[in-house]
Amino acid sequence: MKKQIVISLGVLIFMTGCSLAPEYQKPPAPVPAEWPQDAAGNIKQELSDASSIRKLSPQEFFTDKHLQKIIRLALKNNRDLRLAALNVEKARAMFGIQRAELFPVVNALGAGSKQRLSSDLVSPGDPRTVEQYSVGLGIAAWEIDFFGRISSLKEQALEQYLATEEARRSLEIAMVSEVAKVYLTLAADLETLKLAQSTLENQQELYRLIQRQYEIGVVNELDLRLAQTQVDTARRDTARFTQMVAQDRNALNLLAGSPVPEDLLPTDLTGVTPPKEIFADLPSETLLNRPDVIAAEHRLKGAYAFIGAARAAFFPRISLTTSIGTASDELSGLFGSGTDTWSFGPQVAIPIFDARTWSAYRVSKAEREIALAQYEKTIQTAFRETADALAVQSTISLQVSAQQSLTDAVSDTWRLSDMRYSKGIDSYLSVLDAQRSLYAAQQGLISLRLAELANRVRLYAVLGGGSESMEEPQDSAAK
Questions:
Q1: Cα–Cα distances in Å, from 290 out to 277, 385, 445?
Q2: Cβ atoms 326, 340 nearer than 8 A
Q3: Is residue 7 part of a domain?
Q4: pLDDT of 158-183, one tens digit each?
């Protein structure tokens, strides 16, 4: 009989695995096949396929050595990344729990009892003290997955785990790009702070000169007050950009998870090695490789599996309780001849009426529609972000060039105005206008150079980032 039980269990296990989940079909991307021509029409073709971008690791893209070290520091210490990694471990463990439901739980059972009965309850000559001992292996209420309910729940847990892993990758890409943007912003603010400090020194020196001229009656009070406005403006900007630099450092320390060493901080934007420029002429299907899009698709697949579990709830559930062992009235006789025991108890539960089952099925279908809408929205958001980055890329270099030309022209204007004022040809008002225009033009040039570099980082991130991690460079002598 033991052999028959083992054979029956094997047949039941072999027969499980039927799934009632609808067949998954990848939805079409709800975006145009190509990027908007007015945004991408001027983009040169350098990367011919999406894999070229995915193989470009952060270490290859971010070529500034100091920035590379800060990124490695953030990847090691950032608390958001640590939390994301723990969530991945949790999702993987949940998948393991759900997968284990497919297999029976075998327990070793041991029991012993000793009981003294009333003499009125035993036959004459029988002992009043009764002993019983048993040892066995048992399976308690194992559900045999004929209709794939447990398999569908396992698939749902698997897709949730995979979605969590992709969410961690997406967070890592966002964190790396944010570190780079804060680093570049700090460099730009430091350069602007130097400009404000330099302007303040020049304006203070000019103010002292005009003040002496005013005291001897060479210039009027209007020129003195106009010079003072330039000094006060530069003082205000110096304080403002000092504050911004401090806030940038705080943000960088937070992203890195620890204070960033001073020797890794930039001095100005000019001294930063710029990230590589990505020239992409790719179809919009490239966005399907973004981690957030992949995660949304995994959640959609999980919703399909949930429908299979909801459908299986309408069919009978078959569970099995069985045990094999030995029992005796003496502990020493447990494994003697004729003491073997077994039990085999299958149970079938056929649903007749349960309103919750129908509600759960409707919920599963609604979950699928929600997951589909979220998947499509994720793709559309990715398309918008990439198209915006491409639009900036196609025009930002022209803006920088034009701003550089404007700055040069305004610089010449200020120089000529200062010469004419020194010779008494023009009033100080023309010098003041030229100074203000030059200061604004220099600040605008720094802002545009920052926007150009930041957009390279953004384009790298919105296209899915690199697939390789930042690793510490190895010493060639140690190889």
A1: 19, 12, 33
A2: yes
A3: yes
A4: 888 888 888 888 888 888 889 999 99
